[in-house]
Structures are given as structure tokens and as C-alpha cells.
Amino acid sequence: MAIHIALAKGRIHKAVMAYLQESGYAFPTYTANSRKLIFEDSTGTLKVTLVKSPDVAVYVERGAADVGIVGEDVLLEEAPGAGVYEIFDLGIGRCRMAVAAIAGKPVDMTKRITVGTKYPRIARRHFEQNHRSVDIIKLNGSVELAPIVGLADVIVDIVETGNTLKANGLEVVEYFMDFSARMICNPVSFKMKYEDIRRLVDVVKEKDLEA
Fold first, then answer.
1. For the segment 16-64, what is each residue's pLDDT rounded down to a tens digit?
2. Is 196 helix (H, G, I), strand (E, B) or coil?
């Protein structure tokens, strides 16, 4: 029985597809730079659909895909409480969520501050858990600009190397959450295709995917 996988487009899908190919799955029409979005392996065992990260949980929850692979940060921000099972941590796409501010310019975190972020749900939960009063501004890109132009006191964003922060005169105030890519599953598919899904998980577990 074929397993339909929804993969988050970008680094995650390229890493997973490369590994599946190394593991013996042949996708005749797939290349890393292909504009196609749906690929089937030559045996009809796997069907892969490439979607934007926020849509992975939607495809899986609605049954359009049996399994999905997406960053944990996306699940927490875009799909909290989604009706899916989280079944495996792939260990790829590792990153950290951080609070950052202008370097050398301390921010009084005991006062009400303004936070610029692409992740308002995650940011609000972090500050509320630490009993801090904040105003959240949802931004869609270049959050590093917010403190520089006076739009926000700090930002909350994913940090991998920290080079982008340094290039814009910012520094990390605190790291507060680590993320990696997770495999999620539709509950009905988990029951109906349990053995096939278990085999897929076993195949993925055979290799250290960490990147």
C-alpha cells in the first residue's frame, strides 16, 4: 500500500529525498531543482508531494497525505493542536529560537517591551511563561530591521549561525527553544497503514540524517 508523504519545500525536502534515493527508492522524475511538486517512486511504494511548510500539517490532518515532514517550529506556530500524531524526530534542520536586540544596547526586560517576530504565538508563550509584559508585532520578513528603525525593542527569530544578526548589529539576548524536523502522521492512516508507516520510519532511522 503506497504511502503519501508531504514534505516541506526547501532544505528539509532536499535532505529527505536525497536519503530516500540513497536507501534505494528511485524517483525517475525528481531532481533537486525540479519545478514539479509530485513524485512517485518506480515501485509505487512512495508518493511525495512538496508543499510550503505551513501547509504540511493541513495536508496530513485532512488526509491528503498520510505522513508529513516539517520543522517543529512550524508545527508550534502554524498548527498547534492539529489532529496529527508526531511520530519521529528526524534530527535535521536543527535551529534555535532566540530573543535578540541591538548589540551593546541593554533592554530592560522588566518593563513592557515591543517584540517584532515572524512567530507571534511562540514569542507570546515564551514571554508569558516568564511573566514578562510585551506587545507583539507580526512581521513577515527582515525582522532584524525592527530594532534598528525603532519598530521594536527586541526580535524573536530562528538563529542558525548568528551571522545575519551580527551583520545587522544585533546580538542574542537569550536562546529559549531548540527545533528540528518532525515526522507527523494522519491518525486514520496510522491505523490503516501502520505496517507501511512503521517500515518507512525504520528506513529513516537507519541513517543519521542530522544536518
1. 999 899 988 999 999 988 899 999 999 999 999 999 999 999 999 999 9
2. helix
